[in-house]
Specification:
The chain has 524 residues and is α/β, with parallel strands linked by helices. The chain has four domains: 12-164, Serine Threonine Protein Phosphatase 5, Tetratricopeptide repeat; 180-235, Serine Threonine Protein Phosphatase 5, Tetratricopeptide repeat (Alpha Horseshoe); 254-334, Rossmann fold (3-Layer(aba) Sandwich), CATH 3.40.50; 350-519, Rossmann fold. It has helices spanning 23-43, 47-60, 65-77, 81-94, 99-111, 115-127, 133-145, 149-161, 167-179, 183-196, 201-213, 217-224, 227-230, 263-269, 273-277, 292-298, 310-313, 328-332, 350-363, 380-383, 393-396, 412-422, 438-446, 457-465, 504-519, and strands at 254-258, 282-287, 303-306, 321-324, 368-371, 402-405, 450-453, 469-473, 493-497. A five-stranded parallel beta sheet has the order 6-5-7-8-9, with helices on both faces. Helix 24 (457-465) links the parallel strand 7 and strand 8 (469-473). Helix 5 runs antiparallel to helix 6.
């Protein structure tokens, strides 16, 4: 997260090297007084009051650097980012080596996700004399978004060297370390952030995620509860008047379990719906519309409704208690032993399963291996978690296997690569929308002998169906996470991980060996 610095007014005599006399000196003195007042308004978040004063100054002197700098920050806080950029660039053109203006221009570019321009501004700020840990923190933040993790760590350490002690810097460092698989150090910095600001929702939530990755279930869930505000700028995603369910029996009462995360998380947390049903009473499950029919078939003792189910949220339909699906983990998954063995809890449509089995028989002989290589959600933090179709060459060069596309947004050029470079006709049908038609996606996935996927909803769907799955990861997973060598949520899912410095190729050769073994029925 980038930090903005408020403009500091220089004494009148030092402005741009000019001298003033008579009325000009009086005018400048008045501008200084007004500008200082505007800055106080800006610092207090009174944006409109600050804007009016800065405009009064600019109406008299359109080249007043301080007022341009200040009103650019006002525009930034008002989310008028293109306007903010132009105003800040004009301020910088009038004072071209001002490190503070350069830094704040960087924060605007960063907010616009123009990370290369932001990085150039931050580096100029340092070059022009800034010795501020905030700027090094901002450089680290941008470098991490560009995937330049090693350089980012160096900048974060410089920020600490210059005395930065605000929670955002700690969470930036911790998030970086967590993404690199250094969970111990990540936890250390998250806890430092919480020592400074015990109510920091982002630090709590991300610490919870780190603890989940280590299998520290009990403590992890308490921190994960902060997700309800951490991902929405401190405002709860959903507002229900009913009390939060504590996991106790509720015979004679009505519970609504409501959605608040993505498709993959809804599928994962649905594994705990039967335990909620077993507590008695009536259970209504809210989920993404794409999942409604699938969930209704899988959990017939519950009533399943599409999100957002306004009759519950508006109080039109009465409920006694409410609970987010993600909070079920805190109630039912507090130790490794609390994860049950299962062979799949999502039930695909038998009619669709039969249809896909016939289609697959026509497409080629088994075994059938479903493949996915990336997420549809792009971003600098996500890119290294996924491979390209070219990386999967070792997997798809195994003969005697029919490969099936499970990548919902596969591109025509990716099919061309599979055909021209691997000699494989990847099975795919135009009448199957793997993203929106989750009934078809579930039925097709259930027909696979093996699914190969990164950590996406494809792998989660396969695990929820009980399909044997190899999930490839960019960093090693601590042994403390596993249950009997497999994913505790999904006994049919195994992880194959590489080290940060390794290419995907080496790991995919190991997965290819698993597919070879599958052909002879000896896969572990």
């Amino acid at each position: 997260m980038a930090k903005t610095e408020s403009p500091k007014r220089m004494p009148a005599a030092s402005q741009t090297g000019l001298s003033y006399s008579g009325a000009m000196d009086i005018s400048r003195s008045r501008h200084v007084t007004l500008a200082n007042k505007a800055t106080r308004f800006l610092s207090a978040g009174q944006l409109e009051s600050a804007r009016k004063i800065y405009m009064d100054i600019l109406n008299e002197n359109e080249d007043d650097v301080f007022a341009l700098h200040g009103i650019a920050l006002v525009a930034r806080e008002m989310k008028r980012l293109p306007v903010a950029v132009e105003l800040m660039k004009k301020a910088l053109s009038l004072d071209p080596r001002n490190p503070m203006i350069a830094s704040n221009l960087g924060t605007i570019y960063e907010a616009m996700k123009n990370y290369e321009e932001a990085l150039a501004c931050y580096k100029n700020s340092v070059k022009w004399g800034a010795r501020d840990g905030i700027i090094h923190n901002n450089i680290g933040s941008v470098l991490s978004k560009l995937g330049r993790r090693t350089e980012a760590l160096i900048e974060f350490r410089k920020a600490f060297k210059y005395g930065v002690e605000f929670p955002e810097a700690m969470t930036n460092m911790a998030t970086m370390l967590g993404d690199l698989g250094d969970y111990k150090q990540a936890g250390y910095y998250f806890r430092r952030a919480l020592e400074i600001d015990p109510e920091n929702a982002h630090a709590h939530h991300n610490l919870g995620v780190i603890l989940l990755r280590q299998g520290e279930w009990g403590e992890a869930w308490e921190h994960c509860e902060w997700r309800m505000v951490a991902t929405n700028n401190g405002v709860p995603w959903r507002k229900f008047s009913q009390p939060l369910w504590n996991g106790n029996p509720f015979q004679g009462a009505r519970l609504i379990l409501y959605a608040e995360q993505g498709i993959g998380d809804e599928l994962r947390h649905a594994s705990m719906i039967p335990e909620a049903i077993a507590r008695g009473g009536e259970v209504v499950v809210e989920c993404a519309p794409r999942l409604v029919s699938l969930f209704q078939r899988s959990f017939p003792q519950a009533r399943v409704v599409p999100a957002k189910y306004w009759p519950a949220e508006e109080g039109v339909e009465p409920f006694d208690i409410a609970c987010p699906l993600g909070t079920l983990g805190r109630l039912f998954r507090n130790s490794k032993e609390s994860f049950p063995m299962h062979s799949g809890y999502i039930k695909p449509d038998p009619r669709l399963v039969s249809m896909f089995r016939e289609r697959l028989n026509e497409a080629g002989p088994g075994p059938y291996v479903g493949i996915c290589w990336r997420s549809g959600l792009a971003g600098a933090y996500r890119a290294e978690h996924y491979s390209t179709i070219e990386d999967m060459r070792p997997v798809m060069k195994v003969d005697g296997v029919t490969y099936v596309n499970l990548q919902y947004d596969a591109k025509p050029e990716e099919f061309d690569i599979v055909k021209s470079e691997f000699g494989v006709d990847l099975v795919d049908w135009d009448d199957v929308d793997l993203k929106m038609e989750l009934e078809k996606a579930a039925a097709l996935t259930s027909c696979m002998d093996l699914v190969v996927s990164p950590g996406t909803s494809v792998a989660v769907m396969a695990g929820a169906l009980g399909v044997e799955t190899v999930e490839f990861r960019p960093f090693p997973i601590p042994d403390s996470y596993f249950k009997d060598g497999r994913c505790p949520w999904f006994p049919s899912v195994r992880f194959f991980a590489k080290r940060q410095s390794e290419k995907w190729n080496k790991m995919f050769r190991k997965i290819a060996a698993e597919i070879e073994a599958l052909k002879t029925g000896s896969a572990s």
